[in-house]
Write a structure and sequence with these properties.
68 residues; mainly alpha
């Protein structure tokens, strides 16, 4: 059975790559039983979007403007 460290690693990796069928099933089973990892899986996409928006804002503002 998957532990929380393995689950959070897979959740993070799922933002960059497609998980295999076995990984998806194992992760789904773990998050059904673990509310902490379930919450983490709901927060990661939001954090990823927020960081992308922040990085885009820095690119548009320019490096010099971002330092001020």
């Amino acid at each position: 059975m998957m532990n929380c460290q393995q689950a959070t690693q897979l959740i993070s990796e799922s933002q960059d790559r497609s998980l295999t069928g076995v990984e998806k099933i194992s992760l789904k089973f773990h998050t059904m039983m673990c509310s902490g990892c379930k919450n983490f899986s709901l927060q990661v996409p939001f954090l990823s979007q927020a960081m992308k928006a922040y990085a885009k804002g820095l690119d548009e503002a320019g490096v010099d403007d971002a330092k001020q």
